[in-house]
């Protein structure tokens, strides 16, 4: 039984590393196409989304490093007996970045939903809030998350000997906070994008209104994020809530789901941006027409 569980953890870890590496390649190619080669044109309405791209690159590279270190060190069982706190320093940055990413996704979903329901007011007042201010809010939340861990929950880095997963080395106070936070934020994102989908459905099917291409494209990216959240981000915390020992049996299952979600998300996003924003140098530039969506 123990050998089977150990083999399962190795498979989950190997798959996580593969998915994480693949997602980095896809996103690096996409970022180079947008910011370096200019084969995909930049769109002002996607300014928040571009920060989402950059942030995901950081998250994925951190995960890659974490998984690589984990794979190397797990081969030497004595290492975690001599350095039990090492697991905390390896896994903690990934969970922190994951929480920050969840907040950024929520802000993007809120941004798209408000733009859809209140387009005139949105385009009038949204420019008063710089994108960098929103990014700063996400960074400040990261500081707050650390404060919750060490300040409110009073965490002391003292991982039990033999523990190779961060959740067995952190007090239940923060574990409960993490589970509640992730489930709440992702549930809010799903709710916002459900409102967004409903509004778009009403426009298309019931009111037969013509929606601006810019709004369609930005909203499509938000809906892709929602699909990924439901199946790959919200599921792991729910599983952990009901099966607390799942990490012991399956290893880095949370990372596995997230990295798989990254691959699916980035393939869909790359395809969408390539279709809608690809620069065609051979085509002549025609008049730019915009459709104003009235509230």
TrEMBL record:
What's in the keyword line of the UniProt record?
Answer: Membrane, Transmembrane, Transmembrane helix
Respond yes or no to whether keyword Membrane is given for this record: yes
For the keyword Transmembrane, the answer is yes
Q: What InterPro entries does the database record attribute to this sequence? A: 7TM_GPCR_serpentine_rcpt_Srbc
Instruction: Extract the Pfam families matched here.
Output: 7TM_GPCR_Srbc (PF10316)
Source organism, top-level taxon: Eukaryota
Indicate the transmembrane segments per the record: 12-37, 49-74, 86-108, 128-152, 159-179, 185-202, 222-240, 246-269
Q: Please give the name of this protein.
A: Protein CBG26979
């Amino acid at each position: 039984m123990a050998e089977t569980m150990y083999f399962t953890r190795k498979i989950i870890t190997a798959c996580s590393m593969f998915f994480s590496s693949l997602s980095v390649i896809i996103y690096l190619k996409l970022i180079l196409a947008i910011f370096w080669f200019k084969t995909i044109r930049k769109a002002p309405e996607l300014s928040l989304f571009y920060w989402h791209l950059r942030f995901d690159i950081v998250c994925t590279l951190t995960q890659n490093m974490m998984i690589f270190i984990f794979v190397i060190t797990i081969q030497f069982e004595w290492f975690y007996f001599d350095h039990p706190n090492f697991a905390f320093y390896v896994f903690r940055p990934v969970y922190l970045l994951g929480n920050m990413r969840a907040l950024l996704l929520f802000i993007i979903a809120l941004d798209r939903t408000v733009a859809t329901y209140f387009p005139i007011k949105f385009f009038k007042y949204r420019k008063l809030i710089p994108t960098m201010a929103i990014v700063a809010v996400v960074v400040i939340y990261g500081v707050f998350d650390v404060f919750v861990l060490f300040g409110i929950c009073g965490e002391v880095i003292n991982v039990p000997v033999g523990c190779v997963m961060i959740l067995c080395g952190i007090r239940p106070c923060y574990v409960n906070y993490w589970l509640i936070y992730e489930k709440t934020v992702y549930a809010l994102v799903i709710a916002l994008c459900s409102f967004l989908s409903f509004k778009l459905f009403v426009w298309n099917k019931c009111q037969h209104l013509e929606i601006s291409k810019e709004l369609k494209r930005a909203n499509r990216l938000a809906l892709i994020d929602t699909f990924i959240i439901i199946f790959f981000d919200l599921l792991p915390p729910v599983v952990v809530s009901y099966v607390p020992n799942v990490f012991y049996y399956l290893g880095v299952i949370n990372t596995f789901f997230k990295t798989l979600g990254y691959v699916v998300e980035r393939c869909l996003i790359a395809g969408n941006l390539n279709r809608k924003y690809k620069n065609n140098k051979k085509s002549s530039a025609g008049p730019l027409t915009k459709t104003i969506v009235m509230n």
